[in-house]
């Protein structure tokens, strides 16, 4: 104990400790802070569900201290992936903010091939939208009261069997996905505001007219397996092909040959 009571010894110990901190611990700490590493940073705004492209991100060198362990360090890891959260320019990307597939409520929009389109129609009343019971994959008929001001309620032949691809509440969330599920769990289920249908361009025009008139009802035809649902849509496609026949390639080639033959005839007769 007398050893520690000696002020000189205590002073020497303090000096040694301070030197150790200044010349050993502090340099190591500074070295860890100044250590550089490459990460992927956002250069353009990216919305949730959007595909990340090369021009949206870049690789930059930053200090490696206090970076999340799952921060993305190579652009190849993110290009072609889908954003699972909104990203702003300057944000660095972590693994939890990207996904191999789009958000669940947007998946159906990425399955469009160009042959058919997605169009939404408003659910004007609780009854018009089947009392909120519609779900994705249902096959429905569109009932048009006073169709084209003719005083008759009909199901247009173009809209006998139409596939539902989404039912969306007024909040913008699709039924049975995302935050809508949380709301349902809290007994705050929102009623559908729109129904999104998979249609051809011809069908979309008729739906747009009915939407403008504000008169349409949705009638459920089938709910079940995709295989059986496909039979209904195939039957509808067959009707559409009869209502809106398209010229085949052979017909186009015949028309083209007929246009070219008169022009070639004088040249041939002149040669003779």
UniProtKB/TrEMBL annotation:
Domain of life: Bacteria
UniProt lineage: Bacteria, Bacillati, Bacillota, Clostridia, Lachnospirales
Chain intervals with Acidic residues compositional bias: 246-257
Record region (Disordered): 233-272
Protein name: Pilus assembly protein CpaB
SAF domain: residues covered: 37-99
CDD domains: SAF_CpaB_FlgA_like
UniProt cross-references to InterPro entries, sorted A to Z: Pilus_assmbl_Flp-typ_CpaB (IPR017592), RcpC_dom (IPR031571), SAF (IPR013974)
